[in-house]
């Protein structure tokens, strides 16, 4: 039986050169921290050629699908993994859960149309990975013992050979169009506020989507978006038929390391300004906004409850409340909730207890999801779901797929939303939903256009 092996490669801060060699491979996936510009993440992780890929069957419950993932993961042995391996992934599961996987966990009506036809999840089982550690400035190929010597040699040769130049392109053939009118957006916010006044809920995350037609390779689009808006929980997942998930997420969902759980909900946003003084004023306003703090605290309380279902009694804490995180287009208000995973629970139990994330549903969660289904005409698909890895030792990290796009069947789809509360002003909420995705839409509308095109 081959042993567990790690093979060093030249370090690169950007994953572009290495992932370019995998882009066309089956099951290619990249989890990207946005280095060297974004500074919050430590590891990039990329894989391809999975041993298996799994999506839920049409009538399969969440419980049964998660158990199927466990069974697949168990085919990779843990016993040969070195105890001193400090890398985040030693083989295991990587993929996405779409927002609508939550319909398999909770009872939600089926009003919203499923026009994108995206599976509720797609998860691969991988026996190797390329991992860049931006703290130690290393890049390494990690091989589970199940990888054969010939496959190890093939992968080492692939990444050590000179990269072949590519001439792929991407461009839009129509500009992005909003899925609903400003007036309909106003009506939806007013309906949510009527539910709040009636005591039905406290907060509901309402989103609108934008679509355009495109031609070309979505990986080119990802590279342009990454340059314009680097974020610590970015990712690219190749899907069948040249489709792809493109995510520029700033938000962690759930992380598990040696049994310690952390989630970092975002709630509270202000746009950046090119004037340093105005930009600083925007940040200060957000930090001291009673409304944004109240919204953030609602979600912190919801997540404390979610973690409490899977963590040891008394271990759930809030070590960070109302911290400021800044990105190229927005400032965010971020908190942290932590806990210790209970002895009889695993990371997939944790996902089931907490999915979808409270910061992108509302409170109480199930009622908020029912209202979302009533007021949003179409299903969210990948939006507000999660990209994640879960290795065979139980190490997991995951994002919430906000600032994310789906490129599929010649249409690229993007979503923007925000939390609606009793004192929300619909015009401000509408503008916030645009602000969050403006840099993404503008970048793609300008991609491949002549400099004088005026886009």
Structural account:
- By secondary structure, the chain is of the alpha+beta class.
- The protein folds into 2 domains: 5-259 and 341-446, 4-Layer Sandwich (Anthranilate synthase); 260-340, no CATH class.
- It is built from 10 helices and 23 strands.
- It has helices spanning 16-20, 62-73, 149-160, 182-197, 218-228, 276-287, 290-308, 347-354, 365-375, 426-446; strands at residues 5-9, 29-32, 43-47, 52-54, 92-97, 121-126, 128-133, 138-143, 170-172, 177-178, 203-216, 233-239, 243-249, 255-257, 260-263, 266-271, 317-326, 330-340, 362-363, 386-391, 396-398, 404-408, 411-420.
- The strands form 3 sheets. Strands 1, 2, 3, 7, 8, 9, 10, 11, 12, 13, 19, 22 and 23 form a 13-stranded antiparallel beta sheet that branches.
- Strand 22 (404-408) and strand 23 form a beta hairpin.
- Helix 5 crosses helix 10 (426-446).
- The N and C termini lie far apart (58 Å).
- Keywords: Transferase.
List keywords for this structure.
single chain; 455 residues; alpha+beta; Anthranilate synthase; 13-stranded antiparallel β-sheet; five-stranded antiparallel β-sheet; 23 strands; globular; ADC_synthase; transferase; Anth_synth_I_N
Short description:
This protein has 455 residues and is an alpha+beta fold. It is built from 10 helices and 23 strands. Helix 5 crosses helix 10 (426-446).
